[in-house]
Amino acid sequence: MMFPRQVLNSIKWRDDRDVSRCKVAYLHRGARDDMIEVSGDEISEQGRSFFRVRGSMIPYHRILRISYDGDIVYRARR
């Protein structure tokens, strides 16, 4: 079982992958369905315990799902 950070790094650094084809859905209270989905190319930084998107730091534990070309490659256990 890979963790969300590992999955994102795998997509980012593999030569046969394009991060813009990745979608990341994360928990965001107050948003519709308490979830926001962003494209992988909107992620401006990947830190040790968070990623940065649209100027906000999002902890990896809030990631609900990661998909690549429409296929789910990570889903959080809830």
Which word captures the global form? globular
How would you classify the quaternary structure?
A: single chain
**SSE ordering:** HEEEEEEE
Radius of gyration: 12 Å
Task: Indicate the structural class.
Answer: mainly beta
Second rung of CATH, namely the architecture = Roll
CATH class: Mainly Beta
Low-confidence stretches: none
Task: Write down how many β-strands occur, each being a DSSP E stretch of 2 or more residues.
Answer: 7
Roughly what percent helix?
A: 10-25%
The CATH topology annotation reads as SH3 type barrels
Mean pLDDT value: 94
Specify the biggest β-sheet. 4 strands, antiparallel
Count structural domains: 1
Descriptive overview:
This protein is mainly beta and 78 residues long. It has one domain: SH3 type barrels, CATH 2.30.30. The protein contains one helix and seven strands, in the order αβββββββ. The chain has one helix spanning 4-13, and strands at 22-27, 35-39, 43-46, 50-53, 56-59, 63-68, 71-75. A four-stranded antiparallel sheet has the order 2-1-6-7, with helices on one face. It has a three-stranded antiparallel sheet with strand order 3-4-5, with no helix packed on it. The two termini are 15 Å apart.
